[in-house]
Design brief:
The protein is an alpha/beta fold. It contains 21 helices and 13 strands. The strands form three sheets. It has a six-stranded mixed β-sheet with strand order 1-11-10-9-12-13, sandwiched between helices. A four-stranded parallel β-sheet has the order 3-2-4-5, sandwiched between helices. Helix 6 runs parallel beside helix 8 and helix 13 packs antiparallel against helix 14.
Length: 495
């Protein structure tokens, strides 16, 4: 088992994933090769051509922008504030189901709008004035300041400004260091946001509550309330739609669950190491076998293993016959996956459970380990162990030219995606493509049924993509399709 990351909340900036976890953005090979290489250390490759990159500021923003009584200031040029729109309205339809009796969700974010003169003379005074104005205008219970490439390059003392403002205003004012050039792995922004929350918001527990479990999540449907009810606990969702007070008291929970190790690895480790909240280290519940393991681990952590066995027995009796029907219906089909790291591996689990052959995947980055140091959190390792190898795994840093090349070669029966914009390429090639952004949708036994039914519907209704293929203009030439997908990797070469 890898050593757990030792969390240090005295540091203003959390170490990036390349340094902390040895994460990479470039790989071509099989799933078993990646799992094997990760166990002995990975060396990232470089690209001589890169089509696009993500910015960690967007991921940092999504950890704090939906905290209901906080405000967010993006300290940089106004264009960078587009990152705060990245997670904007995609999942709004899911929100009312979770909190039907709550007040409407709100976001309050601002930008200091650094201009050319500010990059010469400094933006410190502009940030100081912005913090005071935001406090006077919306009276938040906390303010988060997102750094940018511009503010970092000119050396603005963001941490000092935040500390002085906190002393003046009497509320937490937290600096989040998430400038895009810090890391090639944009999910380092999740860690930056949660680091600031842990340093400035979460308080030591005044008491322990055995009726609350933290759930580190994005914005998906609430299936956890039903799953946790037999254990006598309810979810405390972190961080979308929570309040500053909820976060402050998250240290009192009986346990912490994360729906995605890519998202919650760091905060789970912080809550366990610094605040004594045990983390459910088993990988999230995707697939029957993994769901069994997850419920058993949850039961063990909560001290209720008998309840876990009762839930497993009841759910298996209810859903396994329907899963078997779907497996029969999807038998012989092939699929390709494109998604972020942990959820991409989760979808490969789903394919294995439904009897669909996974011909490949384009995963945005790879973490060889997580902050807990637990092997059980490794979804890709679990996938290979439970369902066998996947022959064409690309860690491709959102490089769409590599995805299109692979899809053109493999041409699966269906493309599965978690992020908007990726299914376009499958559709242009006449491949039925399914986009589901809600990571909770395929969780648990019932999630297998939901996702399997959507897959079957998508494969059956292929007339649109077949017609689109006949008329679509593809920006990539035949020359590119004749090249290996790793042409621009440091070890690539022309045919």
């Amino acid at each position: 088992m890898p050593a757990a990351t030792q969390v240090d909340l005295d540091l203003a900036e959390v170490p990036i994933r390349e340094v902390r976890l040895g994460s990479i953005t470039t790989f071509n090979g099989s799933a078993s090769q990646l799992v094997s290489c990760a166990s002995c250390g990975l060396r990232d490759k470089t690209r001589s051509f890169s089509q696009c990159l993500g910015c960690s500021q967007g991921q940092a923003a999504c950890t704090v922008e939906y905290i209901q009584d906080a405000a967010v200031i993006q300290h940089g040029p106004v264009g960078c504030s587009g990152n705060l729109e990245e997670s904007n309205f995609t999942y709004w339809a899911n929100y009312p189901e979770r909190t039907a009796t709550s007040t409407p969700a709100r976001r309050r974010y601002f930008t200091t709008n650094l201009r050319e003169t500010d990059t010469v003379y400094g933006g410190q005074h502009k940030l100081e004035a912005a913090i005071r104005e935001v406090y006077d205008r919306v009276h938040p219970k906390a303010i988060f300041v997102l750094s940018s490439c511009a503010s970092a390059i000119i050396g603005d003392p963001v941490e000092d400004v935040c500390d002085d403002a906190e002393a003046e205003l009497g509320i937490p004012v937290a600096a989040i260091f998430c400038e895009g050039f810090r890391s090639k792995i944009w999910t380092s922004g999740f860690d930056s946001g949660y680091h600031a929350i842990a340093r400035k918001i979460i308080k030591p527990a005044e008491r322990r509550r055995d009726d609350v479990v933290n759930v580190i999540n994005f914005w998906g449907h609430d299936f956890f309330s039903e799953w946790l009810e037999p254990f006598g606990v309810k979810p405390n969702f972190i961080t979308p739609f929570s309040t500053v007070d909820q976060l402050a008291h998250s240290s009192e929970a009986a346990a912490t669950i994360q729906i995605c190790p890519t998202l919650g690895s760091y905060l789970g480790a912080v809550l366990e190491q610094k605040f004594g909240v045990p983390e459910v280290r088993e990988a999230p519940p995707y697939g029957v076998g993994q769901t069994d393991r997850w419920f058993r681990e949850l039961g063990r952590v909560l001290g209720k293993p008998d309840v876990a066995e009762q839930v497993i027995a009841q759910k298996r009796a209810q859903y396994l016959p329907r899963i078997a029907e779907l497996r029969s219906k999807l038998e012989g089909k092939t699929a390709y996956v494109t998604a972020g790291a942990a959820h991409g591996h989760a979808l490969l689990n789903i394919l294995g459970e439904l009897g669909v052959r996974a011909d490949g995947a384009a995963i945005f980055h790879h973490d060889p380990s997580y902050d807990s140091g637990a092997d059980e959190s490794d979804l890709l390792g679990r996938r290979v162990q439970s369902y066998g190898d996947v022959p064409n795994i690309a860690v491709c840093n959102k490089q769409e030219h590599e995805l299109v090349n692979a899809l053109n070669r493999i041409h699966p029966d269906i493309l599965l995606a978690r992020h908007g914009g990726m299914t376009l390429w499958g559709a242009k090639l006449g491949i039925p493509s399914l986009l589901i952004g809600d990571e909770h949708f395929s969780m648990g036994y019932e999630g297998l049924v939901r996702y399997g039914e959507r897959m079957a519907e998508t494969i059956e209704n292929d007339e649109f993509v077949k017609n689109l293929q006949k008329h679509a203009v593809n920006p990539y030439t035949q020359w590119w399709f004749d090249q290996p997908t790793d042409l621009f990797h440091e070890e690539g070469g022309l045919l």
